[in-house]
Design goal:
This protein has about 300 residues and is mostly helical. It contains 11 helices and no strands. The N terminus is likely disordered.
């Protein structure tokens, strides 16, 4: 006797589920995570040693080459020129007490540098106060540009020391004459660069200002100044370099306390070692002033 087996629909569905395997777990049925994984630490980028070597090694090699050539040229005795070792010993002794005072014309190298910097700062400040606004006026207004351009072209090539006798005649004193010389030689780069920067402002900016009916002060502060700032800072850098260059020569002629007078006084004493030290000091101070202004230019950028 054969018995028939009947499968109900429910049994068929159960069989299909068993054949398909276990049902996937829902979000509620999934087992909870035992512990969260710690956050991955940020990967540290390798240090750019090659870039460091490229910044440090070439200047060091250049300085070493200079000292090496200097040492070779002074190996012969009786040349009258001090060796690097002798100059270094004199520098150590000189900077052991840079701020001594033994009289009005016998002061340490520190006081001489500070006096020269004060003259440069005063003359340069006066030049900036006059030259930068004048540059804006020349670049902004065509009539003033045509009136001032011939005068600037005539006076700018004149040697700065040619203005020193005029200062002595007018001020009757060496110190204001030196400041006057700094003023007249450092004003031209600021005037010219500022005027060029104003003239290169896109005309579309000025057209928008006309449409918005902006005042001249708004045009100056909101449009011209941000656009002209790179040119202005370039002129300032050139002016400071020129001022520091000229003050040494001016002080040689006028006397008093200053790095230029100190160099001339050491030459009168035939102290060549101190003259070489002064050359390095003048170069280092000029480099420091330029780097300071470059840092200022990067800090105040409207890009």
């Amino acid at each position: 006797m054969v018995s028939a087996v009947f499968h109900s629909p429910m049994n068929s569905a159960a069989d299909d589920d068993q054949a398909a395997g276990p049902a996937p777990l829902t979000a509620a049925a999934q087992p909870a995570k035992s512990a969260e994984k710690p956050a991955a630490r940020p990967t540290r980028l390798p240090y750019d040693w090659r870039g460091l070597w490229l910044r440090v090694l070439p200047p060091v090699l250049g300085l070493a080459l200079l000292i090496g050539v200097w040492a070779l040229l002074t190996m012969k005795e009786g040349s009258g020129f001090p060796t690097p070792a002798q100059t270094w010993q004199a520098a150590v002794k000189l900077f052991a007490d840079p701020f001594y005072r033994n009289g009005p014309n016998d002061q340490g190298i520190g006081w001489n540098i500070l006096n020269s910097l004060s003259r440069v700062g005063l003359g340069f400040g006066l030049a900036a106060a006059v030259g930068i606004p004048l540059g804006f006026l020349i670049g902004r207004f065509e009539f003033i540009n045509r009136m001032a351009s011939p005068l600037i072209s005539l006076l700018k090539p004149v040697s700065p020391l040619a203005w020193l006798p005029i200062g002595l005649l007018v001020f009757k004193s060496a110190n204001p004459a030196a400041i006057w010389t700094i003023f007249i030689c450092s004003i031209w780069p600021m005037v010219v660069n500022t005027a060029v920067g104003v003239q290169r402002v896109p005309q579309d900016y000025l057209n928008v200002a006309k449409v918005l009916n902006l005042s001249e002060w708004k045009i100056l502060t909101k449009i011209l100044f941000p656009s002209v700032l790179p040119y202005l800072l370039t002129g300032v850098r050139l002016s400071v370099g020129t001022a520091w260059l000229v003050i040494v020569a001016a002080e040689m002629l006028t006397g008093g306390v200053g790095i230029g007078f100190w160099v001339w006084d050491e030459w009168n004493n035939l102290n060549v070692q101190h003259i070489i030290i002064a050359i390095f000091v003048i170069g280092i101070v000029g480099l420091a002033l330029e780097q300071l202004l470059m840092l200022l230019a990067r800090r105040f950028s409207y890009e």
